[in-house]
Amino acid sequence: MRSANSILNPEQRTSAIDALESEEFDILVIGGGVTGAGIALDAATRGLKVALVESQDFAAGTSSRSSKLIHGGLRYLEQYDFKLVREALHERELMVTTQAPHLVKPLSFLYPLHSKVRERTYVGAGIFLYDLLRGLQRALPNHKHLSHKMVQAAAPCLNSKIVLGGIEYFDAQVDDARHTMMILRTAGLYGATLANRTRVESLIREGERVVGAQVTDLASGKRVKVRSRSVIMAAGVWSNELHEHFGITPHYSVRMSKGVHIVVPRSAIDSRVGMILKTALSVLFVIPWTEDKWIIGTTDTDYTGDRTNPKADAADVDYIINEVNKVLAKPISRADLLGVFAGLRPLVSSEKSSATTKVSREHIVDHPVPGFVSIAGGKYTTYRVMAKDAVDESVRDLNKKVPESITRTIPILGADGFHALVNSADRLAEELGLTSHEVLRLLNRYGSEIFEFKAIIAADPTLGRALATGSDYLGVEIAYAASHEGAMSISDVLLRRTRIFFESGDYGLSLTGRVAEIIGPILGWDEDAKGASIREYEDLVQAERQAILV
Ligand SMILES: Cc1cc2nc3c(=O)[nH]c(=O)nc-3n(C[C@H](O)[C@H](O)[C@H](O)COP(=O)(O)OP(=O)(O)OC[C@H]3O[C@@H](n4cnc5c(N)ncnc54)[C@H](O)[C@@H]3O)c2cc1C
After folding, report:
1. Which residues of the chain have pLDDT under 50?
2. Homologous superfamily of 95-172 in CATH?
3. What is the CATH T-level fold of the domain 4-63+178-251+351-409, as seen in this structure?
4. Atom 48 in ligand 1: which residue has the minimum CA distance?
C-alpha cells in the first residue's frame, strides 16, 4: 500500500489541505520536528488515519539546529543515567544498521586525556561501560586506548604538552533536517497527510473533549476546521505558549536553553577524528562535517527571546573559539568562520505530580484532557521511543483496538538496498551520467531515492552539473528539494534541504538567483515571487550577520 503522500510538492500539499478539510482523522499531530514526524510514522504504521501540520517548514525548529549526533550521551553516564544511555545506544544501532543506514553514519571521536594514569582509568571505565551498554547489537567498532604518540598521529592539531594520551570511541551522525523530512516522507508512504506552513490556531472542543483543531494554510490564508478523534502536540519550545493559547493547563513546563555551533574548514584543525572536550559545565564537540568542514559546539544558556529565529551572538562564538583553543597547538579565530547556527533545547520540568503525566528522565507525555496529548523534551536520538510513548497514550482516546508500535521494523525511505547500491556506485554513475564520487555522495543523502534523479536530469541535463563552481551540490538536488522534499522557498532549500547557509562562507547569497531559477517553475513562481523569496533570504542572512557582531 504505497501512497503518493511520500512525494512532498505543491500538488501533494493542495490535496493535503483538501483532506484536512474534508476527512476525519484518528490523530492530528501539531509540529513537524523529529518528534511529530516520529509520531506521524508510528501512528500511520499502526494503521491509524493521521495528519500532521507544521507552521513553518518541516524541521525548521530545534530539529534542524542540533549537534547532529545520534549518540547515547557519554555525559549522562556521569549522572548514572544508565537506562537513558542504553535506550539511546539501542536506537543508534538500529538507525545505523537497518532504519537509516543512508542517513546515519558512524563517526569516531577522541577523548583527549590530560593526565597519564588517573584520568585514563576513570574515563576508560566510563567509555568501556558506554560500549558495554549497547548489549549484543554491535554495529560500531569498540573503543580503543591511544598513547601520547598515537594521539599526535591521529590529531596533530592538539597541543602535545597538555594532551598526554586519549581514548577513541564511536558514535554516529545525521543531517537532522534531512532525516526529519525523510521520516515524514516515510509516514506519507504509509498514508499520513502532511502539510507544512499550516498553523494550528485553536482547538475544537465538545465539552471538555478535544475533537480537532482550527488551522490556517499560511500560503493561501485559508482557514480549515480539522476533525480528529485525538490531537497530539509535539511543539518543542512552543509548548508553553500553545498550552496557554489553547486554554489547557498542562502538568509540566518547557524551559528554553540556547545552543550555538560554529562551522570552520577542515584545514583549520588537523585531525582525522572528531573530538569531545570537557568544559567547566559540560562538553564541547568538534565534529567532522562533510569532507572538508568541522562543526564545533555547543553552548548552553537560558533563553527567553524569539523562538522562531534564535541567533548566535558574539559571546557565544567567542566562548566556543576560546574553549577549543584550550587544546589546540595552533589556535583558530573568527577569521576561520564559515558559518554559525543556534538552536533551542526544549527542557521539560514536571510541575505537579499527576496520574496522567508520565515523566521519564528527559521527555514528558501529558494527557491533561480527553482527546489531547502533548509530548516535549527528550533528544533527537530517542525520537522513535518518544513517538511510541505519545501514540500509546493517545490511542486510549480512540476506543478501539490499535496494534502495538512497529516502527522498530520500518526502514526510512531510501534505506532499502542501500549497501547494494553503494557496491554498484560505478554502474549507477554510468546510468546517471555522474561520477562515482558524486553518486556515493548522493547515496549518502538520498539512498535509493537517487533513482528519481534520472528523469530530472534527463529532462534538463544542466541539472546534472554542480550548482556553482566549487560547490558539491548538484542542480538536481535543488530541483528535487522542491519537487519531492516539500521545500517552498529559497530559505527551505539553503537552510534545511542543503546546508549551504552554514557551509559556504557567504551564506549562499551568490546562489540565490540560480536556486530561484531552478525551483521557480516547480513552485509556479512568477518574477515577483522569485524576487520576494530572494529578499526574504537576504533579510534573514542580514539579521544573522548582525547578531554575531554585537
Ligand atoms: C544546540 C542543540 C544541540 C542538540 N544536539 C543533539 C544531539 O546531538 N543529539 C540528540 O539526540 N539531540 C540533540 N539535541 C536535542 C534535539 O535536537 C531535540 O530534542 C529535538 O530536535 C526536538 O524535536 P521536537 O520535534 O520535539 O521539536 P522541534 O524540532 O522544535 O519541533 C516543534 C515544531 O512545532 C512547530 N509548531 C509550533 N507551533 C505550531 C503551531 N501552532 N502549529 C503547527 N506547528 C507548530 C514548530 O514550528 C516546530 O517545527 C540538541 C538540541 C539543541 C538545541
Report:
1. 1, 353, 356-357, 359-360
2. D-Amino Acid Oxidase, subunit A, domain 2 (3.30.9.10)
3. FAD/NAD(P)-binding domain (3.50.50)
4. 61
pTM score: 0.97
Q: Where is 535: in which H helix or E strand?
A: helix 527-549
Does residue 238 line the site of ligand 1, with CB under 6 A? yes
* Residue 282 confidence (pLDDT): 86
Task: Quote the ligand 1 centre to 375 CA distance (angstroms).
Answer: 11
Q: Write down the pLDDT at residue 358.
A: 52
8 A C-beta contact, residue 181 and residue 203: no
Q: Which of 34, 39, 66, 199 to mutate to test ligand 1, by most ligand atoms within 8 A of the CB atom?
A: 66
- Residue 359's pLDDT is what? 47
- Largest alpha-carbon pair distance within the chain? 71
Domain boundaries, the chain: 4-63+178-251+351-409, 95-172, 256-347, 418-549
- Alpha-carbon distance values, 273 to 68, 108, 149, 154, 423 (Å): 16, 6, 15, 7, 25
pLDDT for 249: 96
pLDDT (0 to 100) of residue 276: 97
Helix, strand and coil content of the chain, in percent to the nearest 5, comes to: 45, 25, 30
Measured by CA distance, the residue closest to atom 49 of ligand 1 is: 61
- Ordered alpha helix ranges (H), 155-199: 176-189
Please state which architecture CATH assigns to domain 256-347.
Answer: 2-Layer Sandwich (3.30)
Cis peptide bond N-terminal to 298, omega within 30: yes
Instruction: Check pocket membership of 381 for ligand 1, CB cut-off 6 A.
Output: yes
- 4-63+178-251+351-409 shares its CATH topology with 256-347: no
- In three-state secondary structure terms, 133 is coil
C-beta 123 within 6 A of ligand 1: no
Instruction: Give the pLDDT confidence score for residue 78 in this predicted structure.
Output: 82
The dotted CATH code for 418-549 is 1.10.8
- Indicate which residue's Cα is closest to atom 52 of ligand 1: 66
Pocket test for ligand 1, best of 41, 67, 306, 382 (most atoms within 8 A of CB): 67
Residue 2: predicted pLDDT: 58
Q: How far is the CA of 374 from the centre of ligand 1 (A)?
A: 14
